[in-house]
Structure formats: structure tokens, C-alpha cells
Design a protein that fits this description.
The protein has 4 helices and 5 strands. The chain is an alpha/beta fold and 134 residues long.
């Protein structure tokens, strides 16, 4: 069996990210609780609102983005959200699974989609600015 170890600088980077995102506090409300339709454009507006809120980084340490949100831009910038988040001190992350599917031949047992090409997608997410994955 071959053991793979992360480089020291990668270990340090991941430890710093984990320390930062493990701080208390999260956004508790969801769109349905405020009668807003959960769609991509409303998600973009909401993220933009966070990005533009003065000193929001004092209360938000990290944001987990969906795949589509990695490519979102604000109304007045060509920079992608992950880069804008990093600029204001918020760590951008990505949710990597693609939902659940029912396993054939089971009694409605489920499995996670999106693990088959996770390595390649992970490298792409990192290039787009995501610093951690959920």
C-alpha cells in the first residue's frame, strides 16, 4: 500500500482554512423563510448583497458556493465571486456533490452523485478560487 502525504505548505493552508471556517456563526435563514424563490438569479443577488455589505467579513468567515455560483459576477465587476470573496477576507468554498440518486436494485437506498470525477473537478474549482470543499 502506498501512502500519500500532503506537502507541508498544503497542510498549513488547509489548517488555516479549517481554523477560520470553524469559528462560530452562520447564516440561519433560507429563501423559503423569507418568501423568495430559490433560483440561480436570486442566489446571485443574495451573494452580491453579502459581498457589498460593508464589513460583512467581520461576521462571515467562509461561504460555501454551488457550482453555478463559482461563475457569478456582481453587476459592476468582471471578477468571479470567489476572487471577490477572497479580496474581502471571506474564504470561498464549493459543495462538490451533485445530489443523491437511488441505487438500482435496493429498497430506495441512496448514494451521492459526483464522486466519479471529483479529482478533476476539484482542481478546476481550485483554479476558479475555491479554497475548500464540502
Amino acid at each position: 500500500m502506498v501512502a500519500y502525504y500532503l506537502a507541508k505548505d498544503t497542510q498549513t493552508e488547509l489548517a488555516q482554512i479549517a481554523q477560520t471556517i470553524a469559528t462560530p456563526g452562520l447564516i440561519g435563514s433560507r429563501f423559503p423563510s423569507i418568501n423568495i424563490e430559490n433560483n440561480e438569479e436570486n442566489c446571485r443577488y443574495y451573494s452580491q448583497l453579502l459581498l457589498k455589505t460593508q464589513e460583512c467579513q467581520q461576521h462571515i468567515s467562509a461561504i460555501i458556493l454551488c457550482n453555478e455560483a463559482l461563475y457569478h459576477k456582481t453587476d459592476d465587476s468582471d471578477a468571479l465571486f470567489p476572487h471577490l470573496l477572497t479580496q474581502i477576507g471571506i474564504i470561498p468554498g464549493i459543495t462538490v456533490d451533485r445530489g443523491l440518486i437511488i441505487l438500482a436494485g435496493t429498497d430506495r437506498e441512496t448514494t451521492t452523485q459526483g464522486l466519479d470525477n471529483l479529482d478533476a473537478r476539484g482542481r478546476g474549482y481550485k483554479k476558479l478560487g475555491a479554497q475548500f470543499a464540502k
